[in-house]
């Protein structure tokens, strides 16, 4: 079933014109031409992504392929902003190579921070994102059951509207441990297969911040062709 896209962010590419050799005007023209070409390519890429999202079923299934196995998640139709944002980032390869940077056994596993690609930014893990937040879509019928897929966010003091991170998400490992989060965070999907993988990730050795001693990576997030 096809549907209308609820949200899509189209990013503009800003390219600075630079001089070249002894012919600054010629160099500027070349830079401007390259900027136009890059912008056209970005628009074309975005349009293709939009077409893919428009063709998705109301509740698509995505495979979160990790270094410890695959977690299959179904995204909810009644959280369309989060659904389409997650799908867009997946199609664009945003999650490829990122780490689960916060793992707490008997609680949850968290990933989606682009800073986790850079070892020298380890002190900043948990603060990164795509540069925007998403309006909360908190539904009372969705609970933090095991395997629930939810959006991370800043605390209430800095974020009284409970807006979600643009990319960071967590997956519930323990319903009991996460029950107190009901009504506070947007739950936008659920695990349908791969519960053992969640447990395996939650069991890895971590430091006091919940960062694994040996990185647990998201290899990629792919649309499950068999289930859509």
Outline of the structure:
The protein is α+β, with helices and mostly antiparallel strands. It has helices at 24-54, 80-91, 175-178, 195-202, and strands spanning 61-66, 69-75, 100-104, 108-111, 133-134, 148-151, 164-165, 169-172, 187-193, 218-223.
Report on the structure:
The protein is of the alpha+beta class. Helices cover 24% and strands 21% of the residues. It is built from 4 helices and 10 strands, in the order αββαββββββαβαβ. It has an 8-stranded antiparallel beta sheet. The longest helix is centred in the first third of the chain and has 31 residues. About 8% of the residues have low confidence.
What is the fold's blueprint, element by element?
Blueprint lengths: L23 H31 L6 E6 L2 E7 L4 H12 L8 E5 L3 E4 L21 E2 L13 E4 L12 E2 L3 E4 L2 H4 L8 E7 L1 H8 L15 E6 L5
Key attributes of the depicted protein:
8-stranded antiparallel beta sheet; 4 helices; 228 residues; alpha+beta; 10 strands; globular; 24% helix
**How large, in whole angstroms, is the Cα Rg?**
20 Å
For the biggest sheet, the summary is:
8 strands, antiparallel
What's the rounded overall pLDDT mean?
A: 90
Measured between the Cα atoms of the first and last residue, the distance is: 10 Å
The 3D shape can be described as globular
Unreliable stretches covering 5 or more consecutive residues: 4-21
Q: What are the secondary-structure elements, in order, as H or E?
A: HEEHEEEEEEHEHE
Total of DSSP H or I helical runs spanning 4+ residues: 4
Share of residues in helices: 10-25%
How many E-type strands?
10
Question: Within the largest sheet, what's the order of strands?
Answer: 3-4-8-6-9-2-1-10
The SS-based structural class is alpha+beta
What is the percentage of strand-forming residues?
Answer: 15-25%
């Amino acid at each position: 079933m096809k549907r209308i896209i609820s949200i899509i962010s189209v990013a503009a590419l800003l390219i600075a014109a630079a001089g070249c050799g002894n012919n600054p005007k010629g160099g500027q023209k070349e830079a401007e031409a390259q900027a136009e070409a890059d912008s056209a390519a970005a628009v074309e890429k975005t349009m293709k992504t939009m077409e893919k999202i428009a063709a998705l079923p109301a509740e698509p299934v995505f495979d979160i392929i990790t270094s410890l196995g695959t977690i299959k998640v179904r995204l909810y139709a009644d959280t369309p902003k989060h659904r389409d944002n997650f799908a867009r980032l997946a199609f664009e390869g945003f999650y490829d190579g990122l780490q689960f940077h916060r793992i707490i056994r008997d609680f949850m596993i968290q990933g989606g921070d682009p800073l986790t690609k850079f070892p020298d930014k380890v002190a900043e893990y948990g603060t990164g994102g795509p540069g925007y937040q998403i309006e909360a879509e908190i539904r009372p019928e969705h609970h933090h059951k095991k395997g629930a897929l939810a959006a991370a966010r800043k605390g209430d003091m800095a974020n009284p509207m409970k807006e979600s991170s643009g990319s960071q998400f967590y997956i519930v490992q323990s319903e009991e441990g996460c029950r107190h989060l009901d009504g506070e965070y947007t739950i936008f999907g659920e695990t349908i297969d791969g519960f053992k993988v969640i447990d395996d990730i939650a069991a890895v050795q971590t430091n006091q911040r919940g960062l694994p001693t040996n990185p647990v990576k998201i290899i990629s997030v792919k649309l499950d062709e068999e289930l859509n």
